[in-house]
Every structure is written in C-alpha cells, then in structure tokens.
From TrEMBL:
Cofactor details (free text): Binds 2 magnesium ions per subunit.
Superkingdom classification of source: Bacteria
Keywords attached to this entry: Magnesium, Metal-binding
Binding of Mg(2+), residues: T58, D59, D60, D284, D286
Protein name per Swiss-Prot or TrEMBL: ADP-ribosylation/Crystallin J1
Native organism: uncultured Pleomorphomonas sp
Listed InterPro entries: Ribosyl_crysJ1, Ribosyl_crysJ1_sf
Cofactor: Mg(2+)
GO molecular function: metal ion binding
Amino acid sequence: MSLPADYLDRVYAGVLGKLIGVYLGRPFEGWTHARIMEKLGPIDYYVHERLGQQLVVTDDDVAGTFTFLRALEDYGISPDLSSEDIGKAWLNYLIEHRSILWWGGNGNSTEHTAWLNLKRGIAAPASGSIAVNGATVAEQIGAQIFIDGWAMVAPGRPELAARLARAAGKVSHDGEAVHAAALWAAMEAEAFVSRDIDHLIDTGLSVIPGDCLIARLVADVRRWHAENPDWLTTRQLIQDTYGYDKFPGNCHVVPNHALMIMAILYAPHDFQAAQRIVNTSGWDTDCNAGNVGCLSGLMLGLDGIEAGPDWRGPIADRLLISSADGGNGINDAVRIAYYVASLGRRLAGEAPLPSPKDGARFHFSLPGSVQGFRPDRRPTVNPAQRVGNVAFGDSRALEIAYAALAPGQVAAATTPTFAPPGVTDMRTYELMATPTVYPGQTVRARVVAPRDNGGAVDVRLTLKVFGDKDRLCDIDGKPVTLAPGGEAVLEWRLPEFDGQPIGEIGIAVTTATQRADGRVLVDWLRWDGAPEVTLRRPKADGDFWRMAWVNGVSFFSKLFPPSFRISQAVGEGMVSHGTRQWTDYAVKTDLTIHLGSYGGLAVRVQGLRRYYGIRLVRDGRLQIVKVRDEKVTVLAEAPFDFAFEKAVPASVRVSGGVLSAVVGGVSLEARDDGDSAFADGGVGLVIHEGALSADTVTVSAA
C-alpha cells in the first residue's frame, strides 16, 4: 500500500494532537468527573495556570511513546519486531526511579514490575504476562498509552499497527490491556485513510477477539451513544457499568478505554469537543486525552486542530523526553514527526525523508511550526514583537515581527537547548537530559530582512546560559546589520562558559535607527563540529551543571571535592553527557577509583547498554570493550597496574571505526567497523559496584 501524499503533515498533526491532549489533561490527572465539574467546570482549554502548574512538562505518555519506538531503529526496521527486542530497548533507555515511567514499586506500578522482571532476566513477553504478574497488574492502562508511534509508522496498515502495538504492549501488559492497545493502534493507522468513525472502530475490533471484554465494552458504548444524544448520560452509564470500582488496581484500562471510545463517537470531527468530553469525564485524563488527541490529529490533520482555539501557540512544538539517551531529551514536534515518518517510510520499503535545509536542526518546514521558539521576555522587549511561521520561497521560515522598534529595545525569540529552570518543580517524572549545543561548536543561522521592512536592523545570535543560583543570563553574539531586502548567515563559534550549560539559543533584533518596523525571517539555524569544552563544577553556585549529566548511578553528589563523584550499589552504573551529534572526538580526564570491580570512561554512549568503554579492571587489566545490550565484547586488552585511590590520567580518541586510549601510560587501540558499530554518542563515567571520581572531563575534536 502506498503512503498517503500528506503522510508527514498527518504525522505532525498526530504528534501535536498527542501533546495537546497530554498537556491539557495532565494538571488534573486522576480527578473524578464530579471533582472536575466542581473545581474547573467543562475543560474547553488549558487549565494549568489555574492550578499553578507548568504546561510543557515531563510525562510518561510522551516520553514512552517516542522512546520505545526507537527499538525499530536499534533492532532493525521490520514488521516482525519482537517483544523481546522492545524489552531490550526498555533496559537501554530506562533509568530506574528516574526516566519515563511511574516508578511506583513492584506490584504497584505495572511498568516498574515489568522492568524489574526484565532486569532479572525474564525476557519479554513473559515480563508483562498474566502468568508472571497476575491479571490485576497486567491489565492496567499502560499498554495503550504508548501505542501512538506504532500506528504512525503504519499508515493505512491497521494489522501491522496492531501487531507492533501488541509486541510493545506485551513487554509490560497482557490480556485486556493489550487488546485495548491493539484496537486503538489499528484505529489510528486506519485514520490516515478514513474519517468514518464507525469504520475506524470496526477496523479496531477486527484485530481483537470478538468475545473479549474490550469488544463487549465497545458494543455497549456504541449502543449508549445511539440511544443518548447527551454524552453525559453515556458517561454515567460507563461509570455505573465499567467504573473504577468494578476493576482492581490503580488505573485499569477498561474504564479509561470506554471514555476514549465515547469521546470519539460523540465528537468524531471536532478536535476541541473530543478533548472537552474525554477530559471533563475524568480518571486518567492525560493518557486518555493523549490517545484521543493523536487519533483526532491523524484523522483531521492540522486543519482540524486549528479549527478551534489556539492549541498550538502555548506549546510551541515543545516536548521533553526523559531517557538514558540524554541528547534526545530536549525535543520538538517537528523533529519527532520527521523521525517517525522516516521510520514509517522505511517500513514501507521507501527511503527515509531527506533532512530539510541540509540537515539544519531548526528548519521550520512544516506549516505553523516554530520548533520551540517563543518571544523572549527581556526587560527591554519590544512590546509589539511576535513570533510565527510563514511561507518562504518553496519552504517556510520562522518570523520575528516587530513594530516601532527603537534604540534600547529588542525583539528576540529563543528555543530550549537544555532543561528549563522550572524543571525542578515538575511533579512525578524527573527529566534526564543533556544540553544539545556546546562550546566549541559553530552556530550558523540564515536571516533575511524582507524588502518591505521599514528601517535597518541589527541581527545577532543570542544565548541564555545558566549562571549563579541557576539563573539564565543573556549572552549575545556579534551583530550583522540588515537593510530592507538584505540577508546574512550569522556565525558564532561558542566560547566556554566555565562548565555551565547553555539553556536556550535564538535570534535577537535591535536597531540603531530612530524607528524600525517589519520582521526578520529565520530560514534555518544549525550547529556543527565537535565540542571544545571542559566539564566541571563552575565557580558560581547552582545545580544545573550537574543535572546536565544523565544520572544512571545510585549516588551522584556535588558535595565531594572533585566535580564528579559517583557510586553504584548493585551492578554497573553510568553518568553520561552529550548527544548523538557527537561522532569523532577526544576525551581527557583523571580517574580515581575508590572501590569497584572496574571503572572507567564510556564513549559514543547511546543509553545504559550501548557504548564503548575503557575499563580499568581490578584484577589488573586495561580493556576497550563494546557493550551492546547483554553482550560485552572485549575489543582490546593489556596488563595494567590497578590501584584504589590513585588518580590515573586517561585519554581516549574515537575516529571512524578506530578507538585509541592511553591510560596511566598504557596504550590500547581497537577497531570496530561492523554493522553493529556505534557511530555517535556522548561520553560517560562508569563504575561497577563501587565509587569513582573525576574533577574535569575535557571533550575536543579528534
């Protein structure tokens, strides 16, 4: 089956629909319908500010959906991707108690229970089975909340979407939970080619047993919908027949699935109405609204989302993905849409999408996209500044508009490159992420001043860098003057900032003339090259320099004299830093092992269980190893004079398929050119059942 002509745009709408639903429902997650009506009334729009919460937050629905999908990339683009391989992706990307999931305890949280099974060697699908975990644990809601990605890579192929959703769902769930996941995935896949909601539901029913509880539930909700014009009547019937009191556990799939079916039956072609119904109904609001939002987005497209209030503006494409691959953490809906659509094209036997504008990080190619850019609120801001997306040639661009811009004022737009300062106030889900841009890299941006502008402007790259008490400080690059009709490529090789992470990047516009009116168009913005950075504790007080490392150890403290001291209680632990954009580079540090069977450096880190390691082994060996899931391959080895409490100079270089290391005067070299070689990834400090410290870690070009 050929892919839809508007496949990419529809995926983008599905991703946005997912985000809108999750962020809309998250502030009152778990509330009953009665409490929502008493405290908030019908949910017609975002209510986070009324409840004193942030809008764009870490959440399992978003992070899990777009992390577990990476199993396709890691284990082969195949319609036969197995539960076992998806389970391996869980072990690579999940950090217990920190990333993606609700870590509520064994037997309390279904996903935590499944992860513990995987960790103990119980491979998927047994890890999520009723036989191992019992029906109550296995039939909670989690299987269906993560399935949207599997549908989006299978447009118009509901059987494939259901097969992938089952494989993914069975890592942690079983029974009715997996039936619900398969049904919804099939519906979403079919939504690419049909807007007939009854046909979509019939398609979903075709992939699950006709006598299962989910199928009977769907039949009941359809009948109640036909008999009752008011959805509130049907909601009460759902509560009376399938309510939380009828099913054990914390958050059972059955009651919530019923609300989702109800919402799309009563509002099949009205995005806002579907969100109003599913959110006002209560229970697991962010999960239910996220699934409904994705289905509505896929079926109705961007026009359907934009038919009502401004859902997109407050989100500005932003999303956060907490995982052991920290460079993927600060993300946006455009990048995710391209990633998902490329996977879908490869599954369909077609080439992945070409990277727009020669691979620019920010290219604004999709309608209405801003990729996280929002107006900067400096004290001297131009009151009329506005940020949007406009047609530009045969593509699109970011627009920074201003009016009556005068000396002393600025019109600026920035986008996140690391965790926002408010991340420490986000509840339930911790953000594991690293910065995306670094000192030593060269940032470039093409900017254009339209001919109808009034007055020349000075345009510059701008950063917000963490400083004392973790406050963001504005740092500007050199300006370029643009007269009306002019254009330029701004360029800035970023300097060191005393180990502080860069929190935001953007464009600032000022003028030296009496008044300027108009706009500056940003065609693209990118950065390239290896970092040239020394990671260490800054002189200024704060925590974000340490939070810029993905924490995969038992204890990571800033209270010891060295900048970095890590401790691991059981097995191997790692803290990592950097992104998949890092390919060839060199690392230099002094390592002190205080206790442990081995410790050392990791390079080209792609999660907890995918990296190259330089190990100082307690029994007197120096090794270069390749860690890929449960398999550890020794690529090179030499005798080594191991000692505790001794600072050992270590330098590592990775270039192409060659890894070379000099540790304590001992040299090693290895080559890995195979199909499973790691081509990119950040750096890490590793310790096995002990403690390790380092004061600085310097990364530079190879």
